[in-house]
Each structure stands twice: as C-alpha cells, then as structure tokens.
Design a protein that fits this description.
Strand order of the largest sheet: 1-3-2
CATH architecture of the largest domain: Orthogonal Bundle
Largest sheet: 3 strands, antiparallel
CATH topology of the largest domain: Arc Repressor Mutant, subunit A
Strand content: 5-15%
Number of helices: 6
Structural class: mainly alpha
Number of domains: 2
CATH class of the largest domain: Mainly Alpha
Radius of gyration: 32 Å
Length: 156
C-alpha cells in the first residue's frame, strides 16, 4: 500500500499564525492538510467538509475556520476555503498527474522492451511459434550444416 503524506515543517508550532489560532483550530488546520492531500484538492476545503474534519474537536467548526481565515492560514473562496501556500509546500494535483504519467510511460516502455526481447533458448520457427527443445536441436544441426557447406567443410 502506498503512503499518502503531507509536509509539515518541524517548527510549525512556533509560527505566529498557528499560535494565534490556538490548539483546536490548529488541529482543524492539520486535519484540513490531510484531507486536501487525500482528496488531491490542491488545498481546497469545501464548506460542507469543515464540520466533518472537525469531528470530535470540542469547538464550533466554522468559528475555528474563521480563526484560520483571520490568521491567513486559510483563504475564503467560493464554496469553501483554500489552504494558503498549499502549492508551495505540498504535492499538487498537476505534479501527481505528471508523476503518474511518467510511471505509466516507464511501465509501458519496460513492457515493450520485455516483449521485444526473447530468451536465447526460445527461437521462433518460421511460422512464428516458439521452437521446442527437439526443434531447436534440429535447427542447430541444420545451421551447422549450412555454415559448413558455405565454408567448404564436411561434417562427419
């Protein structure tokens, strides 16, 4: 299973904006970061999601959201909020899409190269099917006879 994570500066607790909003809004902020990463929303938190991610936090979800907006940790926008500086610090949907496309192309290239190569002990016959061991031995004898005839040698 692939891990989904967000970047969090080890000194974020010393940020004046985080200190200003208090521990409950700080928790909402952290939950919003994880929500945005999980949903690949580029930092967008819909209004309807705020109470969901604020579950079990003993404070009003929208009052905490207002604190985050006042501290400029969130920006209010149509339909919800944007985590300020999301694209500066976190993985964006565009970069995830580019990485996914890069991995897809690499898998396709690897598959193409694998299909292009054939093991040395499995040579196809003229009808395209792989030769079995007996047929390969017959082909080897025939090749040796042809090469010997070309070079003027006789095989015993």
């Amino acid at each position: 299973m692939s891990r989904i994570w967000v970047k969090l500066d080890a000194t974020y607790t010393e940020d004046d904006s985080i200190v200003a909003v208090g521990p409950l809004a700080e928790l909402l902020y952290i939950r919003a970061l994880t929500y945005c990463r999980r949903r690949v929303s580029d930092g967008f938190v819909p209004h309807a999601v705020v109470p969901v991610i604020a579950a079990q936090i003993p404070a009003d979800a929208y009052e905490m959201a207002d604190l985050l907006v006042a501290a400029e940790l969130w920006l209010e926008t149509d339909g919800g909020f944007l985590v300020r500086s999301w694209c500066e610090w976190q993985v964006t949907s565009e970069s995830l899409k580019a990485e996914s496309e890069r991995k897809k192309l690499a898998r396709e290239q690897k598959r193409t190269e694998k299909n292009r190569r054939q093991p040395t002990d499995v040579r196809p016959l003229s009808d395209g099917r792989p030769a079995d061991a007996e047929e390969r031995a017959d082909l080897d004898i025939a090749k040796r006879e042809i090469n010997a005839a070309r070079s003027g040698l006789r095989l015993a």
